[in-house]
Amino acid sequence: MEGYHRSVLLGEAIDALEVKRDEWYLDCTLGDGGHSLEIIKRDGKVVGIDTDPEALARAQKRFSEEGIKEDRFKLVLGNFRDLKNLLPASQRGEQTETKFAGVLFDLGVSSLQLETPERGFSFGKEGPLDMRMDPSLQVQAKDLLQVLSRKELYELFKNLGEEKYSWALANALVSAREIKTTVELARMVERVVGGKRGKVHPATRVFQALRIAVNSELDSLSEALPQALEVLNKNGRIVVISFHSLEDRIVKNLFKRWKSEGMGEVITKKPVMPSKMEVDENPRSRSAKMRIFQK
Ligand SMILES: C[S@@+](CC[C@H](N)C(=O)[O-])C[C@H]1O[C@@H](n2cnc3c(N)ncnc32)[C@H](O)[C@@H]1O
């Protein structure tokens, strides 16, 4: 795959973290390290977590190419839902980083994942229906299509894809259990719901629903955010960039609750969205929303 992941809301997110010299920041979604690199360039230090071993290898390579010194960052393999348990792995010499001046989540998949056909995230590229961000997970998207009942498939597409043709799709899928590739699934969805709806491919929501389920994305986020608040220093900020309404709702509601419990302040009354220029240059940023909470 060509080039590194194009970081969404890069300047806005790093400004929001108000990076201070030699303070530690926790990047829970390292990816290609775009956001982390910017924190380091502003003299911060980073513990970067990712559940995908390839992301760690690529970020490590990128940081060396950029001449970043090893003592400015530490990369940790794991799921951010285990955030607190993962932090001992960020031990450097005598010291373990357990408190941070800021925490960042840039949710969803990276270009690496999206554009590698064998990972199965993209309906435009023929590949196995896999969709695991963490390759050690047991269940792939194709397994869900085989084992879920008609009603479970319907609920999956309705709840996690907000797909209005969920019932028709669930019906079609129970008689096409042998579907194993991304393009086969995309074609089947096209047959059931018709061609393109505006700029959005008809299979977008089905793929989103399967990906969220395979990676337990909503549960992981709900479990990680309270841990992020715990490891945050007073006056530190949590910055979350999300890409669909289900994630954004979790973030928005939790931030509101924290405020009502006197845990801190919601900095973003309305979410920060990418500029038109950013959307034109990077269409993936179109649905991005960033919310900020200060402890
Ligand atoms: C959108 S990319 C991050 C891109 C990064 N900010 C950059 O600028 O290069 C999201 C990354 O988060 C990782 N990720 C998603 N969910 C995760 C989870 N629950 N735990 C750890 N990493 C996760 C994915 O594997 C992916 O590499």
Automatic annotation (TrEMBL):
Residue positions binding S-adenosyl-L-methionine: G33, G34, H35, D50, F80, D106, Q113
Catalytic activity: cytidine(1402) in 16S rRNA + S-adenosyl-L-methionine = N(4)-methylcytidine(1402) in 16S rRNA + S-adenosyl-L-homocysteine + H(+)
A Pfam family per the record: Methyltransf_5
Identification of the protein by name: Ribosomal RNA small subunit methyltransferase H
Keywords carried by this UniProt record: Cytoplasm, Methyltransferase, rRNA processing, S-adenosyl-L-methionine, Transferase
Location of this chain's protein in the cell: Cytoplasm
Free-text function comment from the UniProt entry: Specifically methylates the N4 position of cytidine in position 1402 (C1402) of 16S rRNA.
SUPFAM superfamilies named among the record's database cross-references: Putative methyltransferase TM0872, insert domain, S-adenosyl-L-methionine-dependent methyltransferases
PANTHER family documented for this protein: 12S RRNA N4-METHYLCYTIDINE METHYLTRANSFERASE (PTHR11265:SF0), S-ADENOSYL-METHYLTRANSFERASE MRAW (PTHR11265)
Species in which this protein is naturally found: Candidatus Daviesbacteria bacterium GW2011_GWF2_38_6
GO molecular function: rRNA (cytosine-N4-)-methyltransferase activity
Similarity annotation: Belongs to the methyltransferase superfamily. RsmH family.
GO biological process: rRNA base methylation
Enzyme Commission number(s) from the entry: 2.1.1.199
Highest taxon of the lineage: Bacteria
CDD domains per record: AdoMet_MTases
One term under GO cellular component: cytoplasm
